[in-house]
Specification:
Elements (H helix, E strand, L loop, with lengths): L16 H5 L7 H6 L5 E5 L2 E8 L2 H12 L14 H7 L4 E4 L4 H7 L3 H6 L5 E2 L3 E3 L10 H4 L6 E3 L9 E9 L3 H12 L4 E9 L9
Parallel strand pairs: 2-8, 3-4, 3-7, 7-8
Antiparallel strand pairs: 1-2, 5-6
């Protein structure tokens, strides 16, 4: 049975060792070459983070098609090549998703962050909630730093003794992640790491 690339829909004819060993190929050779992970390290609120990719035009368009155009089939392309490595790296962690507003999830038909990262097969802690519709890209720099008025934490879920992997699709100013870190720490989380698909470049006058 022919396989077709989930990004460009071309028939997959690549006979590389990678594709021969894969049970089911999801990327053609061209798209495979464009999805080269950089694993960019950063730090926010004294917490170590990793961005899988640089925020290139290709990654930007891919996330838009998945998140903005509701192309659910793209959920696997971001981490597929690196699942074994990431599962080993974050073994024993509990995953916390940066939340979307529930109405956005209902309209989209899925939570885009969860759809990407659930392939890591980590235990989920649904502890964060978004109270209102809020897009960082639509806010001024000042407004972004008021994200603490948008997020809340479930007081009934304990963080004590748990290793937390906080995940999101794109890191822009870092305000949402920083507020989430503060909330998780307030519940007793001691070990926190961040994993995002991509991180935009920081503007000269912008601070986390």
């Amino acid at each position: 049975m022919d396989n077709f690339c989930k990004i460009c829909f071309k028939r997959i004819t690549d006979n590389s060792i990678y594709n021969l060993l894969k049970r089911k190929n999801i990327l053609c050779g061209d798209c495979f070459s464009k999805l080269q992970a950089k694993f960019v390290s950063f730090e926010i609120g004294n917490i170590k983070g990793t961005a899988v990719y640089e925020y290139t035009d290709f990654i930007k368009e891919l996330i838009y098609k998945f998140k903005g155009c509701y192309d659910y089939e793209l959920k696997d392309v971001f981490l597929d090549r690196y699942l074994t490595f990431l599962k080993l790296k974050y073994h024993g962690y509990h995953i916390v998703y940066i939340p979307s507003y529930h109405i956005d999830d209902e309209r989209r038909g899925f939570n885009h962050v969860k759809a990407i990262f659930e392939s890591l097969k980590l235990k989920e802690l649904p502890i964060l909630k978004k109270k209102t519709a809020h897009k960082q890209s639509d806010q001024s720099s000042l407004g972004r730093h008021k994200i603490n008025d948008v997020l809340e934490i479930d007081e009934n879920i304990s963080m004590k003794g748990k290793k937390i992997l906080l995940v999101d699709d794109i890191m822009t100013t870092g305000s949402t992640l920083l507020t989430s870190i503060d909330l998780l720490r307030s519940k007793g989380a001691k070990t926190i790491e961040i994993l995002v698909i991509a991180k935009t470049k920081k503007k000269k006058k912008e601070e986390y």
